Amino acid sequence: MKAARWYGVKDIRVEEVVSPEPGPGEVALKVAWTGICGSDLHEYLAGPIFIPVEEDHPLSRDRAPITMGHEYCGTVTELGEGVTNVAVGDRVAVEPIFACGKCPACLEGKYNLCDNLGFVGLSGGHGGFASVSVVPARMVHKMPDALSMEQGALVEPAAVALHAVRMSKIQAGDSAAVFGAGPIGLLVVEALRVAGAAQVHVIEPSEERRAKALELGATSAIDPTKDDPVGKIRDATGGVHVAFEVTGVPQVLPQCIDSTRHEGQTLIVSIWEGEASFQPNTAVLKERQLLGTIAYRNVYPAVMELMTQGYFSAGNLVTKRISIDNIVSEGFEALVAEKSQVKILVEAPD
Q1: Of 116, 79, 75, residue with least CA distance to 97
Q2: What pTM did the predictor assign?
Q3: 108 within 8 A of 97, measured Cβ to Cβ
Q4: pLDDT at 93 (0 to 100)
Q5: What is the CATH architecture assignment of 161-292?
Q6: Where does the chain hold its CATH 3.90.180.10 domain(s)?
Q7: CATH classification code of 2-154+312-347
Q8: What is the pLDDT of residue 39?
Q9: Looking at the chain, which residues constitute the CATH 3.40.50.720 domain(s)?
Q10: How far apart are CA 247 and CA 79, in angstroms?
Q11: For position 273, what pLDDT does the model report?
Q12: Is 100 within 8 Å of 106 (Cβ atoms)?
């Protein structure tokens, strides 16, 4: 079968590999659609970050080259021994987290904080940029009949956004700022609407993405290349209750902190390629909080229910659909060059 595999920085190859077979406790699925994630782009431009290169990942038992893709869905085609939670023919969204189940975080049910956290399609395993994927049965969630397969590919990034908002201290009627209107940032805007935020101010240099943020319900969309985002936010709100950092750009982190009110909170959602700094007194003197958030836990059912109500719509977020043969030129390189792109979906090969 065809698969897109990471070999190194700017070295993703579409090649023929052997189709995987499910072992005990695993399921095989015919992949439908897979989204290109910002984490995938980080690996393409500056990896390895999550991808194991020198040694096998302790949970996937895999290392580069690996088949990429972790935002995906498909139809179950085969069950391994002992699998009872799904049946052949079920349409499923994949929750691609490798967790050990034994470390302190896992024993508390916080499996996204596992000491050996990994992701299918980043840390190894049979990722979604392929015809067939095999994953542990616990990773698959049956999709409601009302959801399309394109929607199924958006469950994973929507879960990131919903988890971030759930981790924040946002309350109905509060104000928020979202720095970055890429796919996750836009999904955070929608999740903030679900949470009842009264004002959501978005900071984004791309004109097309600013327009999309307003379309999705943002109160304002600020161009940081023309205006001072902190000044604009403070003029409008006096300081937001919560700011979400969704850019991974070092100079943006202090702007997030400065945009919040006293006792305000900054949620760091991005995966970073390098370090970022800020003046600690900006947090100390106003008793502000900084909180990191990674992936998601126990939110897939809620995300899919919200999707049936019209949130996190593929029609609003998908800007391009491509074949796996063109994944580099029309996918990764397009995301680098065209800031008008939001979510690019890759159709699985036959």
Answers
A1: 116
A2: 0.96
A3: no
A4: 98
A5: 3-Layer(aba) Sandwich (3.40)
A6: 2-154+312-347
A7: 3.90.180.10
A8: 92
A9: 161-292
A10: 39
A11: 83
A12: yes
